[in-house]
User: What shape does this take?
Amino acid sequence: MKIFNTKQEIKRYLSAQKKENKTIGFVPTMGALHKGHLSLIKKAAKKNELVVVSIFVNPTQFDNNEDLIKYPKSIEIDTHLLESVSCDVLFIPSVKEIYENNISSEKFDFEGLEHQMEGKYRKEHFNGVGTIVKTLFEIVAPNKAYFGQKDFQQLQIIKKMVKKHRLNIKIKGCRIYREEDGLAMSSRNIRLSKEHRAAAPFIYKTLKKVRKNYTPDNITKLTDWVNNQFKKHPLLDLEYFTIAEEKTLETPKSKESNKKNRAFIAVFAGNIRLIDNIRLKND
Ligand code: PAF
Assistant: This one.
């Protein structure tokens, strides 16, 4: 595995690889890698001749400085993990290398996707994500890029950005990886206290009950039910629960059953914020 820290070096290397007509699959990450990340890398390896992974904790997408400072970092373990899967190139730039002397984000118009859910609670978050993903896409110029569906809104926003900027990159959304007890894998999970970790599977259990009881005409009732479940919970605080259409991320207006809907949730377990979502059946 080749490791690069500068844009110039990785660009030079990848441009030589492209001259040999190698296709590039790219997995951008913020490190603290878990099985979910590794599954994206394995997927990329199946479909591309060269797999590039980046590790960069992007400051402009954090609205909470404590979350940024405490974001788990485990570069040595990550490097070993990446060597054990089929990663060919690892890019680990510094903040200065990416932002030079101006740590700020570009303003994007994601046609309303950015104002839903996470956008209501994490101001500037998606401008930060758009900025770093666009920058990394310019550096790596991959054929395909892989993202997990846990951050479903992020995935839709990146697809929108690629379309609007006419980037020639295929965006692949990959299924959510879960712990055995159902908790969606996340780099933040290791920061959970023992009791919050034990409580956290309640999130997915609730989502599964929503899926079981969902019909297009009981959205309000289900939303009230979820709110009540969390009001009663001693350790988990619900930030939001919403049912939204996959494409627009808006609450379905009609009872049409031909649209694909999902239930989305954000919960605080102590001071750790966890998100999750589930696909709802259409009938
Ligand atoms: O999902 C993430 O880990 C990050 O938001 C991403 C896409 C690597 C951008 O920093």
